[in-house]
From TrEMBL:
Reactions that this protein is recorded to catalyse: aldehydo-D-ribose 5-phosphate = D-ribulose 5-phosphate
Residue runs in coiled coils: none
Name of the featured protein: Ribose-5-phosphate isomerase
NCBIfam families hit by this protein: rpiA
Tagged with keyword Transmembrane: no
GO terms (BP aspect): D-ribose metabolic process; pentose-phosphate shunt, non-oxidative branch
One GO MF term attached to the UniProt entry: ribose-5-phosphate isomerase activity
Organism for this UniProt entry: Periconia digitata
Keywords for this protein: Isomerase
Family that this chain belongs to: Belongs to the ribose 5-phosphate isomerase family.
């Protein structure tokens, strides 16, 4: 149902109060702004009313005190999230970074900055080579005074000792959604090349199932294929897949480090394998439910899709063990983390590991 709300645009004073009407609809936001002192706040215009056959009109009375309290709470919660990321990063580095390592993968995003900070505190050994997963990741490595080396400079048989990265959401089986910051292809390359992938995140990312809090699956797509991929995603059950634009919408679609585009596809909350075993859904899309691995494969098979932002299947050590017994060498590399460190709101760090 459309929602008609009024809210202050800035902290109100008795002489000059800025109010705004916002009509929130799924596809449109109407905004009208006016200054008022003591005069009565007008309701929606006739034109707006025509657009709103069944609107709700809410007129909250907001004081300066409640306004600044909200701002203060938002700042506190931002600080909380950053503290959570830092705590998780420190613990992950303490447990998984070996100062004698040869090659270490470094992911992208805001959390990885704390991982690099903790690595730098543990060692600045110039012999350790850090493999970035994109432009921002390389910048973080260079700024920390560590030694970056491009992924394609690695000898073919060289495995990374460990790769650290963030995630947008993680489920109980350690499947991850990644790509919220438009990095996923190089992150997957690096995770698959690592003996172990260690994920670091804050409490908002810790969920039982994927697509619980995080709304969409990011997919990296060749620009030419975007219309066809959008259509195909709808047939797979994505409700309203969208091409991601830059913050300044008029600048057009957002480009990845590969000069590709990102499509964000919303699906119903995904099932884990256990859900399919216990009859919670077919998990193959036939009844509207998708199991994580099945959806990842279905999206990856679309022409024009470079990579999908679901990290699932095997983890590094499991892939290694299977490969040792696989004479045909068909086992693909692991891409799932062996451990996920979640910084919690109360300052503690929770650990989910592959064995749990
Ligand atoms: O595209 C970005 C990457 O997949 C990030 O690792 C992911 O979005 C998590 O980012 P952040 O640490 O900023 O939450």
């Amino acid at each position: 149902m459309p929602l008609y709300i009024r809210r202050p645009l800035q902290s109100p004073t008795s002489s000059n109060r800025l109010n705004t009407f916002a009509l929130l609809q799924p596809s449109r936001i109407y905004l009208s702004c006016f200054a008022s002192s003591s005069r009565r706040v007008p309701g929606p215009s006739r034109q707006d009313r025509a657009l709103l056959p069944s609107h709700r009109f809410i007129t909250p009375i907001r004081t300066f005190a409640s306004y600044s309290r909200r701002q203060h709470q938002a700042k506190m919660s931002d600080a909380n999230v950053e503290a959570a990321k830092r705590a998780a990063a420190r613990q992950a580095v303490k447990d998984h970074f070996d100062p004698n390592a040869a090659n270490v993968g470094i992911g992208s995003g805001t959390t990885i900055v704390y991982v690099v900070e903790a690595i730098k505190e543990a060692s600045t050994n110039p012999a350790i080579r850090f493999i970035p997963t994109g432009y921002q990741s390389r910048q973080v490595i260079v700024k920390a005074g560590l030694t970056p080396i491009a992924f394609d400079s690695l000898a073919e048989d060289t495995m990374l000792d460990v790769a650290f990265d963030g995630a947008d959401e993680v489920d109980v089986e350690l499947n991850c959604i990644k790509g919220g910051g438009a990095c996923l292809f190089q992150e997957k390359l690096v995770a698959q090349r690592a003996r172990k992938f260690v994920c670091v995140a804050d409490y908002r990312k810790k969920q039982d199932r994927l697509l619980t809090n995080w709304p969409t699956i990011p997919i990296e797509v060749a620009p030419l294929s975007v219309p066809a991929v959008l259509r195909a995603l709808k047939t797979l059950g994505a409700t309203e897949p969208k091409l991601r634009t830059t913050l300044l919408e008029k600048s057009g679609p957002l480009k990845t480090d590969q000069d590709f585009y990102i499509v964000d596809a919303p699906f119903k909350t995904l099932l884990v394998m256990e859900d399919v075993k216990t009859g919670k859904g077919n998990g193959d899309g036939s009844d509207g439910t998708w199991e994580v691995n099945r959806l990842s494969e279905a999206i990856k098979s679309l022409t024009g899709v470079l990579e999908v932002g679901i990290f699932s299947g095997l983890n590094g050590p499991d892939a290694e063990a299977l490969r040792a017994t696989d004479s045909r060498k068909t086992v693909t590399s692991g891409q799932k983390p062996v451990a996920v460190y979640f910084g919690m709101a109360d300052g503690t760090v929770e650990l989910r590991t592959a064995q749990q």
